[in-house]
Amino acid sequence: MKTLYKFIADPSAVSFLLRGMIKFTPVPELNDPSELTPNIITEEVKRSLDRLRKDGYTETDMINLRRQKNLLRRLSPQFHAGGLPETPNEATAQLHLPYYDQIATLEQQLNELVLAIAPNAGGFCSSLRYDSLPMWAHYANNATGLVIEFVDLERVFQGDDTGVLSQPIAVRYERDRLSVSFETRSHESIFFAKFPDWSYEREVRIVLPLADCRKEPKENSHIYIREIPRGCIARLILGWRLPLAVRKVIRDQVQEFDRDVEIVDASVVRGRVMV
Known about the structure:
- By secondary structure, the chain is an alpha+beta fold.
- The chain has 2 domains: 4-35 and 122-274, no CATH class; 42-118, no CATH class.
- The protein contains 9 helices and 12 strands.
- The strands form 3 sheets. It has a 6-stranded antiparallel beta sheet with strand order 5-6-3-2-8-7.
- The longest helix is centred in the first third of the chain and has 17 residues, at 59-75.
C-alpha cells in the first residue's frame, strides 16, 4: 500500500495524532449520505443467481462465504446464521431452493441486515493524494487545516478472517454498477464502493468493529480510538492559510511528542497544490 494522507480540519487534533491515536468514525456518520445503503440491482441479482445455479460454487466461493459468515459474526451477531454448507455441491443445491427466487424478500432482509451492521462498524478514511484542492477546501477547512502523511498502516492493520475488516482497502468508484448479489464477494461493496462523483478523493478505507476500539468521552458525545505506533506518521503538510500562531503550536507539539515527524508547507502553484 502506498503512502496515505488524512485531511484534518482542526489543528488541535495534531497532538492527539502525534501521541499515536487515530479516530474511527461510525460508518453512518461518514460524509457520503449513501454509505451503508445497499445497492441492489435486481437484474444483477437474478443474473448472479442464474450463473451460480448453472456453474455452481467453487472452492474460492466457499472461502468467500466463510468470510461473509465471519463478518456477520463480528458486526451483527443477531443475523449470524447457523452452519454453512460444507461443500460447493451442497451450497449450489441450496441455491436451487424456491426461497432464493423471492428477490423482494431477500432485499428487505438485506436492508435489515445493513441497519443492524451500521451502528457496529467504524471507518478510518484516508486518501492516496494530498494535492486535491476540493479536499483541502472540504476536509481541511479551506486550507486552514493540514494533512497527515501516514506510512506502514498495512503493517498495523493486517486484516482478519473476514477478508474485509482491519486492513486498508481502496474504494472502488463503481457503485452505479456494483450490486449486492449472490456473487460471494459482492458484500464488499457495502463498505468499499462509492458513486463516481467521489472518485477525485482516491479514498483508502480501514473498517473496524467499533467494539475493537477504545471508547472515550468527548464533549456531549464520545469517540472511538485505536492506537498506532508513532512511527506511522511521517509528515505534517500544513495548509497555506494556517495561521502563524497555530504553526508554532504544531511545531512545539512535534518537538514534544515525536521529533522524527517532518513538517512541510503546502502552497498553490498554477492551480496545483505543491509541497
